[in-house]
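Hi all, long-time lurker, first post. I run a small reading group and we've been trying to get comfortable going from sequence to structure in the token notation. Rather than ask abstract questions, I figured I'd post a concrete chain and ask someone more experienced to write out its structure so we can walk through it together at our next meeting. Sequence below, copied exactly:
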Amino acid sequence: MSIKLKKKLSNIIKDKYIKKCRKVNKIFILGFQKSGTTAIAALLSILTKKTVMLDLKSAIDTPEWKLSFKYPAFCISDKLFKYRTELNKYILKEPGFSIFYPELHNLYKSSKFVFVVRNPFDNIRSILNRLNIPGDLDTIDSNDYSFYNKSLAWQINLDSSWLGYQEINYIDSLAFKWSYIVRLYIENKNNIILIRYEDFVKDKELSIRELANKLHLVQKKEITTHKDHQYQKKGIPVSNYNDFFGNNFNYIMDHCYDLAKEIGYNLEN
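-- Answer (accepted) --
Happy to help. Here is the structure in token form:
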């Protein structure tokens, strides 16, 4: 079979896949990294006995696909087609998809979308805990942080230049990305179900049951024994974010204050 014919057949198969996407009914769990998306998606899966994907694991070693976001020729459907086997689940949790919400909503017209949000100070602190990076540095020397140095995925996550923003440092970048994702929710809130991490933590079982009701999903199993399972390494809470972030505190306030207020957070407290 010639290369030209193989490409033609591949395009036919991809077109059929895209048409199918428009008709399928899936649940997308989106949000910033370390905002509670894994726990919420996992518990929703247990409660409803629906299949779940917790992160697009096939793409972890090749996260540079996200960088294509800034190129007009890039099409998210190409990546969805490439990873279609792993995406063959009912509940799809992948924070990396969050910035592609408009494209996903246009493609998955019959699907539902959930955005998980978390207080930006707490959210960014949790990311830094994951990477063992302090919050008050001026810049990051990757050689000082082995996990970050070895993870291209996290290096991309801490960079915002590919989103068209030239960050001052890593906290400025993370604050910008938090605001970018929350702004996407606010601009499209009529099509998205919002769940705040803090509300979830107060009563996990009630939050997941209420979410299932909003998604019109049948509840089939108890989650009492699963609700406190630690799906990812627990972070280290702090009592004073001014001390934790130092001069970087203002980057978070500048980017996030107004948007946080729109979704019920008072960052002055």
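A couple of things your group might point at:
The longest helix spans residues 3-21.
The CA atoms of residues 24 and 110 lie 6 Å apart.
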